[in-house]
Design a protein that fits this description.
The protein is mostly helical and 469 residues long. It has helices at residues 3-18, 20-39, 49-77, 79-99, 103-131, 134-165, 172-178, 181-191, 198-203, 207-217, 220-237, 251-269, 272-286, 290-315, 320-344, 351-380, 387-415, 417-439, 448-468. The model has no long low-confidence stretch (mean pLDDT 83).
Length: 469
């Protein structure tokens, strides 16, 4: 085996190992979709629309704080160490939810599980962005998105299998939740073989270790050149002194933070997770029975996987902004038609199939365009010293909004109905398109250090032009 092939194999090992965090993220957020109808029964946890929303969304609140906290801890202790610790939390919390005797215990362990999900959502893309060569960064980071939807798809498949074969077993939802522990073990064991991020090592003054890691995944000349570039970027970052929120008072950094938060919010106001968490309920509301809804929901998961594979190819070929704009246009249009058909076809046998078809179209645009670009841009735009904090804050807002939507959706569905609920998301989608068109920069084709230099120089240029005026 030649050295080049060996380096590529090493890079793939790193990518696959880290993205088990994405698989856990996907499975743990997707499994609730099929578990809820069984969990809600009077002889189980006896959920109301409010407690149903709480059990679902408390994970998302935990994820918000997990993203924020783990970003800071990863900047201090390292990306790899944080991902290893998260795998342990995933394991304990998965077993806790599966064994929960009542709603209160379920809520506690779902929150703990959320801490791990949020930490993984912030750490894994940032880790991959720092390990990848710039020409492969888009595809490597978006591989995590593939693992997320792959995890959701697996959750839907196992939900359908268990829901159909064990429908008469009241506690079938416990088996669904217990399966989450398996990928947690896989994440821990695989990350033991993965090195630390060379960018983090250099930021801690460990140049020789960083160079050794780079030589494992780059040719020697490129590794040495990249090491010098990272050192130069870290040296510039020293003027920011200790990392804190105050660092974002610098105008160009504040602008980047607002863009990161904005892109995160755009991801959520599409309404994607109303479908990912409550897809079974939406299909039941439109006319399917529980078993039929569980099976039909597999289609949503399968389309998501196919769309992300296409999206990974797309981000390697096309600029980020147009991909995101096309994706948002597609998701907003699909939701508009769901809302309209829910009125026009109300009570007809055609409605459930129309809703299923449109959710498939929605997810094709969401997972093929919006999802991959969201996580990629958040992982790319922040400078090295603030990458953990910046991405953590952005993902914090993503999860807070996810929590609000996850909690409110079953309440909205039961009070105002399917059509009015989706008209609200259509309005949000129009706002999202406007934000991306006006504010989001293009990041394709530059190294992480080159992006940092671009944003600095752009700010300096804008400042100079204003002073002349």
């Amino acid at each position: 085996m030649d050295m080049s092939e060996n380096r590529n194999r090493r890079l793939k090992l790193i990518m696959i190992s880290a993205t088990f965090g994405g698989l856990l993220f996907g499975y743990d957020t997707g499994v609730i979709n099929g578990a809820l109808p069984f969990m809600a029964k009077p002889d189980q946890l006896h959920l109301t629309p409010v407690t149903e929303g709480l059990v679902t969304s408390i994970l998302l609140l935990g994820a918000a704080f997990g993203a924020l906290l783990c970003g800071r801890l990863a900047d201090r202790y390292g990306r790899r160490k944080m991902i290893l610790n998260l795998s342990f939390i995933f394991f304990i919390a998965s077993l806790g939810t599966a064994l929960a005797p009542n709603v209160s215990v379920m809520v506690v362990f779902r929150f703990l599980l959320g801490l791990a999900v949020g930490g993984a959502s912030a750490m894994v893309p940032a880790f991959l962005a720092e390990m990848a060569p710039h020409e492969k960064r888009g595809r490597m980071v978006t591989q995590n998105e593939l693992m997320i939807v792959g995890g959701q798809f697996l959750a839907y498949v196992f939900n359908a299998i268990l829901g159909v074969t064990m429908a008469n077993t009241g506690h079938v939802w416990r088996y669904m939740l217990a399966l989450c522990a398996v990928p947690a073990i896989m994440l821990f064991s695989s990350m033991l073989k993965v090195p630390e991020s060379p960018r983090w090592l250099i930021s801690k003054g460990r140049k020789s270790e960083a160079l050794r890691v780079l030589k494992q995944i780059r040719d020697v000349k490129r590794a040495e050149a990249e090491c010098r570039d990272i050192q130069a970027a870290v040296q510039k970052d020293t003027e920011l002194e200790k990392v804190s929120l105050k660092d974002f008072s610098t105008p160009w950094l504040r602008r980047l933070l607002l863009i990161g938060i904005g892109v995160a919010i755009v991801n959520q106001i599409t309404g994607v997770n109303s479908i990912m968490y409550y897809g079974t309920q939406i299909l039941k509301e439109s006319g399917f029975g529980t078993k039929a809804a569980l099976i039909a929901n597999i289609g949503n998961g399968l389309v998501s996987v196919i769309a992300v594979i296409f999206g990974i190819w797309l981000v390697g070929k096309v600029r980020r902004r147009p991909i995101l704009l096309i994706g948002l246009a597609g998701t907003t249009t699909a939701l508009l038609f769901i809302a309209i058909f829910s009125i026009v076809l109300a009570g007809s046998a055609a409605l459930p199939y129309a809703v299923l078809s449109l959710t498939v179209v929605f997810l094709a645009f969401m997972q093929g365009c919006v999802g991959p670009v969201t996580w990629l841009v958040i992982a790319e735009i922040f400078p090295q010293k603030l990458r953990g904090l910046g991405s953590g804050i952005s993902v914090f807002f993503l999860w807070i909004l996810n929590f609000i939507i996850g909690f409110a959706f079953p309440i909205l569905l039961s009070s105002v109905g399917l059509s009015s609920t989706f008209f609200i998301f259509v309005a949000f989608g129009i706002f999202a398109i406007g934000f991306v068109y006006k504010f989001m920069p293009e990041t394709k084709g530059r190294t992480l250090e080159g992006l940092e230099e671009h944003f600095r120089s752009r700010h300096d240029k804008d400042t100079a032009e204003k002073s002349v005026i």
